[in-house]
């Protein structure tokens, strides 16, 4: 089997941790800073951070169109926290989306001021019964399109969803030692590569 090569969009946010997790899960991982670096990737992670900042940088460096093409070529993309907001087709209270690739409606900063950051253990379908999820000013997924799947909910709110080759998590899967969600994403990449 040829090794999988996964990129982590490295404009802002938690990049190094994702790279380390992917490597521990058996892939080759690179921090992506230039659009040309997307060319030989099998999959891409868009990390957490600040969605408006990442979006501005994506426009500035030509990633908006390049990542849209990447997704439209059916290459898997995993958006975590701000990355999920960037992937979404719709953002609650905002007219425009960013990449607009994944059929979900997201709500930003959805857990309120009292609960800005917290960690909970929850079941994630097809991933783990006891997945540790770290939330930091997290969004949640209000709606999933008709072909989408809900993989996890916390307090009745959807926090992990899949729509074909797109995966979104409201939390930060790179901030624990648990790489099962990264493994799940690598299985998706394998599925779409053949
Ligand atoms: N940890 C995060 O990625 C936070 C997301 C951030 N609140 C946003 O709206 O972009």
UniProtKB/TrEMBL annotation:
Catalytic activity entry: L-glutamine + H2O = L-glutamate + NH4(+); aldehydo-D-ribose 5-phosphate + D-glyceraldehyde 3-phosphate + L-glutamine = pyridoxal 5'-phosphate + L-glutamate + phosphate + 3 H2O + H(+)
GO BP terms, alphabetized: L-glutamine catabolic process; pyridoxal phosphate biosynthetic process; pyridoxine metabolic process
UniProt xrefs under InterPro entries: Class_I_gatase-like, PdxT/SNO, PdxT/SNO_CS
Keywords linked to the UniProt accession: Glutamine amidotransferase, Hydrolase, Lyase, Pyridoxal phosphate
Residues binding L-glutamine: 49-51, 108, 136-137
Pathway field: Cofactor biosynthesis; pyridoxal 5'-phosphate biosynthesis
Gene Ontology MF term list: glutaminase activity; pyridoxal 5'-phosphate synthase (glutamine hydrolysing) activity
GO cellular component entries: cytosol; glutaminase complex
EC number: 4.3.3.6, 3.5.1.2
SUPFAM superfamilies, sorted: Class I glutamine amidotransferase-like (SSF52317)
Family to which this protein belongs: Belongs to the glutaminase PdxT/SNO family.
PANTHER family linked: PYRIDOXAL 5'-PHOSPHATE SYNTHASE SUBUNIT SNO (PTHR31559), PYRIDOXAL 5'-PHOSPHATE SYNTHASE SUBUNIT SNO1-RELATED (PTHR31559:SF0)
Subunit and partners: In the presence of PdxS, forms a dodecamer of heterodimers. Only shows activity in the heterodimer.
The protein's role, per its UniProt record: Catalyzes the hydrolysis of glutamine to glutamate and ammonia as part of the biosynthesis of pyridoxal 5'-phosphate. The resulting ammonia molecule is channeled to the active site of PdxS.
Name recorded for this polypeptide: Pyridoxal 5'-phosphate synthase subunit PdxT
Organism, scientific name: Brevibacillus centrosporus
């Amino acid at each position: 089997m040829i090794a999988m090569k996964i990129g982590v969009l490295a404009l802002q946010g938690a990049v190094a941790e994702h790279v380390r997790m992917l490597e521990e899960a058996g892939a080759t991982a690179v921090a992506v800073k230039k659009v040309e670096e997307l060319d030989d990737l099998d999959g891409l992670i868009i990390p957490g951070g600040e969605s408006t900042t990442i979006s501005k940088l994506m426009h500035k460096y030509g990633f908006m169109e390049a990542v849209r093409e990447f997704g439209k070529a059916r290459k898997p993309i995993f958006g975590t926290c701000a990355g999920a907001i960037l992937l979404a087709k719709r953002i609650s209270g905002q007219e425009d989306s960013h990449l607009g690739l994944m059929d979900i409606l997201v709500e930003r900063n959805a857990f309120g001021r009292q609960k800005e950051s917290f960690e909970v253990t929850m079941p994630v379908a097809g991933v783990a019964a006891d997945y540790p999820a770290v939330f930091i000013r997290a969004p949640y997924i209000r709606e999933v399109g008709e072909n989408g799947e809900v993989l996890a909910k916390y307090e009745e709110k959807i926090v992990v969803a899949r729509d074909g080759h797109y995966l979104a998590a409201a939390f930060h899967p790179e901030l624990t030692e648990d790489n099962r969600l990264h493994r799940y994403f690598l299985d998706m990449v394998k599925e779409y590569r053949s």
